[in-house]
Amino acid sequence: MASFDNVTSAIASQLLAGDIFLLTYSGHGSQLIDQDGDESDGLDETWCLYDGQIVDDELYQIWTKFRAGVRIIVVSDSCHSGTVIRSHSPQLETVISKDITCSASGILLSGCRDNQFSYDAPSNGAFTAQLLKVWNNGQFKGSHKKFLQAISSGLPKRQRPCYLTFGAKNIKFSRQNPFQP
Predict the structure, then answer these.
(1) What sign does the CA torsion over 89, 12, 171, 118 have?
(2) Is 80 a residue of the active site?
(3) Annotation marks residue 79 as catalytic
(4) pLDDT tens digits, one per residue of 76-101
(5) Residue ranges in the chain assigned as alpha helix (H)
(6) Can you give the CATH number for the domain in which 93 is found?
């Protein structure tokens, strides 16, 4: 059955060390009152889907299913997306049990900070439009962080994209060209 858990488990089971999983989301984002006390601002970030919202804590649970050595890139062009893939504040990392840690290495490229909106452009979100322009069909050379800096330079000051790593540290992954094996 194509349930949320079955689909995410099936994806995670297919990925091996060295593989890259790319997830892009361009849509509405929102915030809800934090129910478990893991957010410093008291708000969980969400993606607004057709039939409900998926909370950042739920997204983080997906990444915990991925094997060590898998590289995850999440591109989120949505409002309030600065930490939309992260479950826990850094202060809580030392008290979290090992059964919910993420062994894969992940990078989030988000369209704005948690307290900001992602604005539209004529054919895409402004962040997505600028990302495509900077990426230039794979011609961009530089790290993921430099990629985000180049994207940011073409956006209005009221929309500041975020770069966030999660899971296992992987310096080589962080430094490689975006969307490259």
Answers:
(1) negative
(2) no
(3) yes
(4) 999 999 999 875 455 444 444 444 68
(5) 4-14, 56-63, 126-135, 144-153, 171-175
(6) 3.40.50.1460
